[in-house]
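Per reviewer request, we include the raw input and output of the structure prediction for the construct analysed in the revised manuscript.
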Amino acid sequence: MSNYLAIATVTATLQRLLQAAVQVDVDGARVTTVQPGQIGSGTPETGINLFLYQVSRNPALKNTDTVTARMKGNPVKRQTAIDLYYMVSFYGNDTELEPQRLLGSVIRTFNDRPSLTTESIQETIADSSFRFLADSNLADQVQQVTINPVDLTLDDLSKAWSTFFQTAYLLSITYKVTMVTIEGEESLKKALPVRERNFGGSVPFPYQPVVEHVASDLGKLAPIVATTTLHIYGRQLQSHRTQVRINGFEMAPASVTETQIVLPLATLPVDCLRAGIQGLQVIHRIAASGSPGDYRDRLIESNAIPMILRPTIKQVYVTPSGEPHDELRSALLTIRVDVMVGIKQRVVLVMNEWSVDNPSGYQFEANPRSADTDTIAIALRNIKPATYLLRLQIDGAESLLSVDTDPNSPTFNWYSGPKVSIED
């Protein structure tokens, strides 16, 4: 969260960011923050004016002041999330097209830096020109402050400038900065915690299973992959016939107690597993009355709890394609993973050059598939010939990289794979 200096800190940071760029592109250009009607009286002959002309509540967090969670261990206080709208105007010698050159410089700058980094905010606060911002804590805000262009029609632009009384129009562009959260000073009250969860009392299922959390056998924070042994914790998990449902498939666990179920994922058919967020439930099947062994009539289900299953890259094949273009290469990458990839699942390949000398990086999205498969083909275009580390994101669940654990290796403690080489 940020204090009352957040808005001024955003403006000052934008001003410093633009000043550093335009003074290189257009000699003598300066960035001001005056009202449009004051441009020309005391401002440089060539420059940019950054004017905050509108403030609105952020629609995504409009009700954020009712949330009674804790952030970074601090007591929750009332807060307001706002968006800031800036009119960026350009003026100078029209014969030399200085306003248009400045416009291009601003577009390029905000395109390269679409957010305010913690470092840029801290540098602004430390700048002696902005001593009045010394108490600002915008750099500690959890939410990222982003810069987005706003497309205004000619009619909207006319209405905006008409609010600037007796002000001649200047070449302008509008940006929205989202979002800034301003925190109050008084803490909110927090209710006592719920002592016990209950799924509806004694009727119809007094012993309904309750799943509290799911973790890998390697620890709570260990990633879950297709070879993980799941530990499912909860209450009333044991019955005459207990099963676990994942992604619509039901399977028998290795062991069951009242408070814990052990389920090795490696024993499951590959068709049962999908990468991404999976819903997990514990199922109790109760024999129908007078029909021993018949479990079709009564079914007791636990609450559903999410888990993230991460894919693992098993094999990678490279097929060169096309002619080199400006020393860049194209290829078809075929990747086999240890889970099935659904028809509608989104697959993104992340490539990072295995180098410490200005490494390149790319992302490519796989084309839609006509059937579920464990093999993904991804077309690579215009990439630098090099060796790359590969990660595959399936519905946001990202495959893991291996690490060189040999202390005698020159790349000890580096990421070591999976890798692929795109040849010269």
